[in-house]
Specification:
heterodimer, A: 336 residues, mainly alpha, ABC transporter involved in vitamin B12 uptake, BtuC, two-stranded antiparallel ribbon, globular, B: 406 residues, Rossmann fold, 2 domains, seven-stranded mixed β-sheet, five-stranded parallel β-sheet, 13 helices
């Protein structure tokens, strides 16, 4: 597929994304897309390190949670405006990435060892968030005041009580903006020297080093970029739900969401995390509705079905959904 | 693409196969279809995920109330309209709870009842406020839920502040009445959710000025599979009172571990104890439960309707727990609001609930008195396990037995 065609495809997707709140009046379906985009952002953060860099992380919640906590605490403790807290929150994701990256890559941790250390860091941060009560409020979590003044929507970056359109689409556009910026960053990375070096490290780190690639530096850059994007997702979460506690921030749920979407969608591809997130959410919703309509409410049964479909996808789509699309395009003659 | 993971060739398939299996543990909503004229009510609880037991209990309680209301002719002021439950599953996650509210909005519900945990309730009430949907919080006790001036949010039961204050004062009063046998205490609390840590802090701040010496505060995570170290530490400290604060599973394990390690304080006194006033625990582990006191949500023990619901719940193979009767009464409170509003209109229901003086319930609250969405008349009771029974021991007007210190 030529670059021009790809860019056209992305522009059409972005235009559809921007137009969605005008086309979809149902809050339910817009919320559905919004949650999909949220997972797609988390997935893209993971994809930079895991998909392009081959460094599987089992604890990406550590970046998400740190971004969320910094965004919440700077407002809660120091009265920062959310706009002022935002750069600190995003930088904190990069900072935590730099710390974990330095401690892991400096000592040559890869594969399973790196996966486990990221899991351990997420758990350690969860314990810290629970324990340093004077800073983090411990297990009771940090709750931000809810703005009910429609005149303060932009200063508080809260849209619950905004005028009707912003109330409908404010948070959607917030996560869409994060998504577009993250995907542009990854798109540019893929085509840059850094991207090529990162892929070479994934394919064979020793060979890449022999060719002069500074694998440590490349991986450090990747983990910092990945941490920034995951932290931005944390900022969105806090601004929308106005609450964060250790479990939400550093619990395994976010780490799992971050890695499943790109693996299903297609590792090391720009579109993969978005495809994966959309697919996962769609089959989850379809399974839920189908089971509900057929045999009434059966909590958990939809997720068994969902799990079975996932296993089938894994079995028959080794390159993920992006690979399926690519094959289909070639079969249609687009690859010639 | 194949990567090296755990020293062997682990592909994305094997990583995801595990992920897929793990994901199959969570849940689904559904829609209860009713014939004829209906008024829709959203019922959202965490019926899958780590809060599944409590969420399922809540759903049962809410549905039991709906069944009863519909069987007795529905909402009479709405020409006998039947209540149709639109079920939602928060999957133990706040964001999913909030997205279920969007579903309720698209279904056109008149009101919402839910969502068990404080974290989820904070998100669902906020999402419901966006559309002006009245939201009755059934269990979530965090005072911030009703402290945000959201005019759509109501809580029929007591909040954290009242429960803790009552719990502390009751312990002091019971101790005094027994001749002050207890002077020292240890607080054991879970610190994974907002509930346990907050409770521990309030208990310490309340008991120390009353002359209790808090020997130590021992936190633990949820879930927690081993309480031996904590039990041994308590044994070493030898306090007069052990004050546990955790969810059901940890509550059971903790109390059983104390029994096995032969830790025998003068009294085990919990506030919102996960297991301390649960019939399921008393039935399954009667010995470990003996003498345990709990300040918690509890029904008026002399009320026949409360006992009838207990019989029905047990006949249905369920446990009669606070989740069941709180969700049940929350739904009944809403139904009364609809009767008074005489309209399925959300604003009319909110207005009716705000001035509600409902007294047709079996909780020890008397007529409802709403202030900023909180029922100011709501109070907890103190119970103590004795044999196979759970008896109310305070306050005096509801007491079935006298408190026993060991």
């Amino acid at each position: 597929m030529s670059d021009t065609l790809r860019i056209t495809g992305w522009v059409v997707l972005a235009a559809l994304g921007i137009a969605a709140p005008f086309l979809i009046s149902s809050g339910r379906w817009l919320e559905f897309i919004e949650l999909t985009l949220f997972v797609a952002v988390l997935g893209q953060a993971w994809n930079i390190l895991g998909g392009y860099g081959g460094q599987y992380s089992f604890g990406h919640a550590v970046f998400f949670g740190t971004g969320a906590y910094v965004q919440a605490l700077l407002q809660f403790r120091f009265g920062f405006s959310p706009w002022l807290a935002l750069p600190f929150a995003i930088a904190s994701g990069a900072g935590v990435g730099a710390m974990i990256g330095y401690l892991s890559f400096r000592y040559g941790l890869r594969g399973s060892y790196f996966a486990l250390i990221t899991l351990a860091f997420a758990e350690a941060f969860r314990v810290l968030a629970r324990s340093i009560v004077s800073v983090t409020e411990g297990g009771r979590g940090v709750s931000l005041p809810l703005n009910q003044d429609s005149g303060e929507v932009w200063t508080t970056l809260q849209f619950t009580f905004a005028e009707p359109f912003l109330r409908h689409a404010g948070y959607y556009y917030m996560i869409l903006t994060v998504l577009i910026l993250a995907y542009i960053a990854v798109w540019r990375m893929e085509r840059s020297r850094f991207g090529a070096q990162l892929i070479s490290v994934r394919e064979n780190e020793d060979a890449a080093a022999a060719l002069g690639v500074d694998a440590f530096r490349v991986k450090m850059k990747a983990i910092c970029l990945s941490g920034m994007i995951a932290a931005a997702a944390g900022v969105y979460y806090v601004q929308k739900y106005l609450f964060v506690d250790p479990e939400i921030a550093y619990g395994p749920a976010k780490s799992v969401e971050a890695l499943v979407a790109p693996i299903i969608g297609g590792l090391g591809t720009v579109i993969g995390p978005l495809l994966g997130a959309a697919f996962l959410h769609s089959i989850g919703e379809v399974a839920k509705e189908a089971i509900g309509a057929l045999i009434g409410p059966r909590p958990g049964l939809d997720l068994i079905l969902y799990g079975m479909i996932l296993v089938l996808v894994l079995g028959y789509l080794p390159r993920g959904l992006a690979g399926l699309l690519d094959s289909a395009w070639r079969r249609l003659g687009g690859g010639r | 693409m194949t990567y090296r993971l755990f020293g062997t060739s682990t592909t994305r398939r094997s990583v995801l196969a595990g992920g897929a299996a793990a994901t199959g543990m969570l849940a689904a909503p559904g829609i209860l279809h009713a014939a004829g004229k209906t008024v829709k009510v959203g019922v959202v609880h965490p019926v899958t995920g780590f809060l599944q037991f409590s969420g399922t209990q809540c759903r049962y309680g809410a549905q039991a109330a709906i069944e009863e209301i519909n069987a007795s002719g529905g909402i009479k002021a709405l020409d006998g309209a039947m209540i149709e439950a639109v079920l939602g599953d928060a999957q133990s996650k706040a964001e999913i709870g909030a997205s279920e509210v969007e579903k309720f909005e698209s279904e056109g519900v008149s009101a919402i009842v839910g969502a068990y945990s404080s974290g989820i309730s904070l998100a669902t009430t906020q999402a419901a406020a966006k559309y002006g949907i009245p939201h009755i919080v059934d269990v979530g006790v965090n005072d911030k839920i009703v402290g945000r001036d959201l005019d759509n949010t109501f809580r029929f039961g007591p909040g954290f502040g009242v429960i803790t204050k009552t719990g502390i004062q009751s312990l002091i009063d019971l101790n005094e009445a027994a001749g002050n046998p207890a002077k020292t205490c240890v607080i054991v609390h879970e610190n994974t959710t907002p509930f346990g840590s907050y409770m521990a802090g309030l208990m310490k701040d309340g008991l120390e000025p009353a002359g209790f010496e808090v020997l130590e505060i021992l936190p633990h995570p949820t879930p927690n599979k081993d309480f031996r170290n904590i039990a041994l530490k308590i044994k070493e400290l030898n306090p007069d009172v052990v004050i546990p604060s955790h969810y059901y599973n940890e509550g059971v394990l903790f109390l059983r571990t104390l029994q096995r390690q032969r830790v025998s304080p003068k009294v085990i006194y919990s506030v919102l104890g996960g297991a301390s006033s649960q019939y399921r625990f008393v039935n399954e582990f009667e010995d470990a439960a003996q003498g345990v006191m709990d300040c918690n949500h509890w029904f008026d023990p002399s009320n026949k309707a409360a006992l009838a619901l207990k019989d029905k719940t047990e006949a249905d193979g369920k446990t009669y727990s606070y989740e069941v009767f709180l969700a049940y009464t929350a739904m009944k409170f809403l139904a009364d609001g609809m009767e008074r509003a005489a309209s399925p209109d959300r604003k009319a229901i909110i207005d009716a609930l705000a001035v509600s003086e409902w007294d047709g319930h079996f909780m020890p609250y008397g007529p409802t008195k709403m202030e900023n969405g909180q029922n100011m008349a709501a109070v907890p009771l103190v119970t103590q396990v004795s044999g196979e029974d759970i008896n109310v021991i305070a306050p005096a007007e509801y007491a079935q037995a006298k408190a026993k210190f060991g």
